[in-house]
Structure formats: C-alpha cells, structure tokens
Design a protein that fits this description.
This protein is of the alpha+beta class and about 100 residues long. It contains 4 helices and 5 strands, in the order H-H-E-E-E-E-E-H-H. The chain folds into 2 domains: about 1-40; about 50-100, no CATH class.
C-alpha cells in the first residue's frame, strides 16, 4: 500500500476531499519527523510508539569494496507496536488465509 492508496482509503471512509487528506497526512509525517529529531517520543494509544533508538558504534562491511568501515554511535527512528495492535495482527483471519496458501 502506498501513500496514495492510504489517502484514497481514508477518503472513501470519511468523505473528506483527497487534497485535504494529503495535507493532513503530510503534516502528520512532518510532525513525527520533527519530534524524533528533537528527541521526543510519540505515543499513539492502541497503535504504538515512535522513538529515536540509540545505536552503538560498530564495525560494518562495505560489500561493494570488501572493506571494513566504522559506524559512529547514532540514533535511528524506530517503532514499537502496542499490544492491542500486535494482538489484532496475530488474530487476523485474512493473514491466516495467506499462511494456508
């Protein structure tokens, strides 16, 4: 599913103009980005938590050049789904049908 698909789906469910939905969705994404940049955590009840996760320094490989490179300590965006979200996905009948195939 793409961003355009999400906009169309929300439009069908709400009757709101697709351009308005796009503006709102873009503002939401920008708010999430900005909040993570300044170290804030975003809690969305019954959905999950967006946060900046601290990554330790490490040695990695550049497989194109077959060399080792050092990666400094840094932060990366992360998402932890809520328990109710995880339970809903686990019990999804549509996903269970995919397992049978």
């Amino acid at each position: 599913m793409t961003k355009a698909d999400i906009i169309l789906e929300i439009g069908k469910k709400t009757g709101v103009n697709n351009m308005d939905i796009q503006v709102i969705l873009d503002a939401f994404f920008e708010t999430v980005r900005h909040s993570l940049e300044i170290g804030e955590t975003i809690y969305l009840r019954k959905f999950g938590t967006f946060y900046a996760k601290k990554k330790a320094p490490k040695i990695a490989r550049d497989i194109r050049k077959n060399t080792s490179i050092f990666l400094d300590e840094h932060f990366a965006p992360d998402f932890k789904p809520s328990k109710s979200f995880v339970d809903r996905i686990k019990s999804s009948e549509d996903l269970k049908k995919l397992l049978i195939k």
